[in-house]
């Protein structure tokens, strides 16, 4: 049996742009994506802390070190510039692999710079910082 588990999370990202005329997706600074282990065009779920919206889309890499978090196309209606969002990426795992997997959590500051990374050591144990 496969279980859907959290693979990575970008915590407290600030929306920097909302582009209604784009075809769709979310653009995220490539450096942030790499730290989170999220690939271009991978599906993500976004939860908006300001308005409670929760929606799914796919990722487009943005310019490195830009801090860009841009809601594109219809997702631009789900948030506004300045909103804080949490971006989740899930994956499917066999039961035998779940206890070995370590999700990545990237925590951003108010300028969308990664200030801390956490890699959960395994299920039911406390997280460990991977960068500061």
Number of strands: 10
Low-confidence stretches: none
Order of SSEs: EEEHEEEEHEEE
* Fraction in beta strands: over 45%
Globally, the shape reads globular
Number of domains: 1
The separation of the N and C termini measures: 37 Å
Task: Figure out the total of helices.
Answer: 2
Please state the oligomeric state of the protein chains shown.
single chain
Strand order of the largest sheet: 2-6-3-5-4-7-1-8-9-10
Mean pLDDT: 90
CA-based gyration radius: 15 Å
How helical, in percent, are the residues?
A: under 10%
- From the coordinates shown, what is the CATH architecture? Beta Barrel
Structural class: mainly beta
Task: Please name the CATH topology.
Answer: Barwin-like endoglucanases
Largest sheet: 10 strands, mixed
* Assigned CATH class: Mainly Beta
List the helices and strands and how they pair.
Elements: E1 2-14, E2 17-19, E3 25-29, H1 30-36, E4 43-48, E5 54-62, E6 69-72, E7 84-94, H2 95-98, E8 104-108, E9 114-119, E10 128-131
Give structural notes:
- The protein is mostly beta strands and about 130 residues long.
- It has one domain: Beta Barrel (Barwin-like endoglucanases).
- It is about 10% helix and about 50% strand.
- It has 2 helices and 10 strands; from the N terminus they run E-E-E-H-E-E-E-E-H-E-E-E.
- The chain has a 10-stranded mixed sheet.
- A hairpin with an 8-residue loop joins strand 9 and strand 10.
- The longest helix is centred in the first third of the chain and has 7 residues.
- It is globular and about 45 Å long.
- The model has no long low-confidence stretch (mean pLDDT about 90).
């Amino acid at each position: 049996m496969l279980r859907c588990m959290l693979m990575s999370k970008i915590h407290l990202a600030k929306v920097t742009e909302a582009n209604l005329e784009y075809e769709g997706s979310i653009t995220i600074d490539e450096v942030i994506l790499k730290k989170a282990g999220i690939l271009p065009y991978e599906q993500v779920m976004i939860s908006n802390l300001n308005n409670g919206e929760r929606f799914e889309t796919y990722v487009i890499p943005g310019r490195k070190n830009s801090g860009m978090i841009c809601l594109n196309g219809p997702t631009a209606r789900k948030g506004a510039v300045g909103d804080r969002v949490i971006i989740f990426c899930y994956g499917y795992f066999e039961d035998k692999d779940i206890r070995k997997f370590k999700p990545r959590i990237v925590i951003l500051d108010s300028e969308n710079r990664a200030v801390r990374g956490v890699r959960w050591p395994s299920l039911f144990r406390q997280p460990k910082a991977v960068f500061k």
